[in-house]
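Re: beginner question about structure tokens

> Can someone show what the tokenized structure looks like for a real chain? I only ever see the sequence side.

Sure, here's an example I had lying around. Input first:
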Amino acid sequence: MFMKTLGANSMIMVNLLRQHAAACYSQDRYSEGEGFLREAIAKAKMQASSETQQISFVIKQGLHLELASNLEEQGRYRDAKFLHKQAVGLLRESRGHLSLRADHCISLAALLRRQCKYSEAAEVLQQAQADCIGNEEQMCRVLLQQSKVANDTGDKEEALQLMLSVQSRVHKCNPNSKYRAFFLCEDLGWVYFHRREWHAALHWLDRAVAIVKRLAAGSCQANFQRSICYAGAAAVRFRLGEALDHAIEYQSIAAECLKAYGCYGTNGVQRALFYLGICHHLQGEHELANGHFEKAVQSQRRVYHTAHPSSAIFMDPTRSL
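And the corresponding structure tokens:
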């Protein structure tokens, strides 16, 4: 009984530490958040009973996934890569937990791709693909990353075919997994925006908006996600010259959410800043547009290698129009 109580108390403390870490991220205090996550991992290791060891192992690898993301946001890519690879190795030895291993592989591949290490990214994605058979959500994420690798390396046709495969599968994803579904839809909107396929971009960005409307307003996660998809949907509407009242409303919501979120170092924020810059540019507000574009470049450089093809998008944003 004592060991069970100890285990329960440890898990309560782990969850509290994770919440403290999340609060730090929302204020761009990643180093402090890292400290909370490392303390949470240490608490998870305290699970001593045979009954809870397996649960503790899974929790630790999940915490390692969060910690790797934290390190990446700090620009510590080598440390993040090491942590992902260590977790993948441990999960492989455990002969189970394929879903968690696939999560680490997908995150590792995304990190490698952003650092222009395409061969390594492709190899890791093959491992992820083998691990996530039967999990449509993860398969969509794998295919989307494969599409991005193909696009980054100049194989536009392969990138398009992979993206179309993602589209055909998105509806099969768990509708309760709002966080992942949001990023799949928002990613597709971003891709179509830069292909100048405006109606397709709007379709997927509006789907992302519909997802975040179901999130609790005012939360850190909601502010982050709303700032991106509302800004994107507004930018496309301004570009199409349609529903301008709607576009202005969405632009206002995006700006308010981005201000409330306040963390300009998080990967993804560069898109919100980019879209808002496009909104101002299309309304002839060039000084405001340039201010957003400059912030977008600074944010993008925190998470992408300077040689990455996306750098050109942020350095010359209006070429997408």
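Each token stands for a local structural state, so reading them left to right follows the chain. Confidence is low (pLDDT under 50) at residues 1-6.
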